[in-house]
Amino acid sequence: MRTIVAYEMYFNKNLFQPTLFGELYYNKPPAFNWFIIVSSSFVGWNELTARLVSLAFLFLSTFTIFLFSLYLFKSIRQSLISSLLFLTSGNVLFFYGYLGEIEATLTFFIFSAVVCLYLWWDKDYKFLGFLSGVLFGVAVLLKGLPAYGFLALSMLAMVLYYRRLRPTFSKLAFLIYSLCLLIPLLWLLNTQEPLIYIKTLWEESFRRVEGKGFSRLWHMLTYPVENFKDLLPGSVLFLLSLYLGRKGLHVPAELRPFLLLLALNYIPYWLSNSAGRYVLPLYPILAIIAGYYVNRVMEHDSFRKLFYSALTITIILRIAYAFVYFPYIQQKDREQSVAQSILSDMAGKGVIACECPHRKDICLYLGIWNGKPLKRLALERGADYVINCQEGPVGRVIGEYELRRGDRARLESLK
Asked: Would the pTM count as exceeding 0.85?
């Protein structure tokens, strides 16, 4: 979906108002689409366009973790361990680190903003305080209102740790708040329906607080387990490091504000109907904390061998996944082959409309190959053909194609 919206913004030369099949799209702000458009200038419009954005910000996050851990502890080995723990966590390495989704990009901006915020509080680096406001503002343009939650709870963590309330009412603090509001506001004022956009983003952010059949108690019990699984193998290595280093175990001063910051930012997702990927922006902080304790016990020969073996096996599995499982999934994914069949069945070129909103990839491929994004039939006057997944034809059926899960698509002529 992200690639379709970005392609339409690129084609329409409108970087402020996202659309989906020609209809106004309100579910997400536009910043991720902007990055996809930049990516298209390097790799064109294809399956890699959105993935390249996630990969780029994944490595930027990894590098930032290394630099910040090095700043805190002055240890290259510990910084490399923290970076590797983040990079090889299951949810990052196997899924959201390469998928064309927002999470990996959001992780970089939230983590970088938190680092800048901390350095402002700890060292009074005013420029970094200013930069945190810019980064949180961009994070709002990526995901919407959750970025404000990260800002508010991170500020609260700083207040509680440093026991100072005054900085939150300083001129720089109000500049940070203003930037977080002004950056999204400048975009909203350039959209066609800003009030509808605000309403939709609000609903998107809070509709997961409770859902149909949602049990808060069950979620509170199972969500940490899900997070533990998502963080494998690093989560197991971290627990082993705590056990092996239990003698003299302590929390160094460098980590204390981040433990508090981590706990406060985790609570909203622990209490609400949240997916595991929503806490991905907290992974870098977890990696820095885990890296410290893992590094403490790296002198144990057995643990060191286990550490390197676990990470090596994880990376090998990821390579095997890429070369075996991913092509297998692509082969099973029929959208691209169906789109090719549709093109071959069309009697010459023509204007195509899309009535397969739940099978977006078919319409994306056809739009890219035709050099023009497809629109819904009601918005595409003079359409020659329609790709129809709805019940009942609206034109003369030229071909019918089997999709996954028993769905079918039809190419219909309207002339």
From this structure: yes
